[in-house]
Amino acid sequence: MDRAKQRVEARGRIRERIRRKVTGTSERPRLAVFRSLKSIYAQLIDDSTGKTIVSASSLEKDAGAKGSNAAAAKAVGVLIAKKAKDKGVTRVVFDRGGYLYHGNIKALADAARENGLEF
Questions:
Q1: What are 70-91's pLDDT values in tens digits?
Q2: Which residue blocks in the chain are alpha helix, DSSP H?
Q3: What is the pLDDT of residue 60?
Q4: Which listed CATH number (3.40.50.1980, 3.30.420.100, 3.90.1180.10, 3.40.630.30) goes with 3-114?
Q5: Roughly how many angstroms between the first and final C-alpha of the chain, as a whole number?
Q6: Cβ pair 30, 22 in contact under 8 A
Q7: d(Cα 45, Cα 51) in Å, to the nearest integer?
Q8: What is the predicted pLDDT for the residue at 62?
């Protein structure tokens, strides 16, 4: 088994462990983050109904920055916080999706916090 496949499987196990502990409600939805090689995505999810309340990604025109770098992550954090405020959501639980809380994930979380989301 090559190293890339091992890394993907390890992230899957970590992600499952996190999801057992972190669930979103309608009062406090889950801020789920996904990072690909080309983009970064964030969603606010109400797990009790299984619905996505708000989503944002670096692919959107109003995100400001493109790609999957720290600048794009900050732009997505700002965008998700703005959209959440428009829907009346201020408190969330953070789901890092199995990624280390470092780099792009940390940049997105910090930007979301600075723009009004509490977690």
A1: 999 999 999 999 999 999 999 9
A2: 3-21, 70-86, 104-114
A3: 94
A4: 3.30.420.100
A5: 38
A6: yes
A7: 6
A8: 86
Residue 98 has a pLDDT of 96
Q: Give the start-to-end residue ranges of the domains of the chain.
A: 3-114
Contact in structure between 22 and 95 (CB atoms under 8 Å):
yes
pLDDT digits (tens, 9 = 90+) for 15-42: 999 999 999 999 999 999 999 999 999 9
Sign of CA dihedral 57, 62, 63, 66: positive
State the Cα–Cα distance between residues 82 and 117, nearest whole angstrom.
9
33: tokens are 């983050």
Tell me the residue type at 42.
Answer: A
- The token pair that represents 56 in the structure block: 């944002």
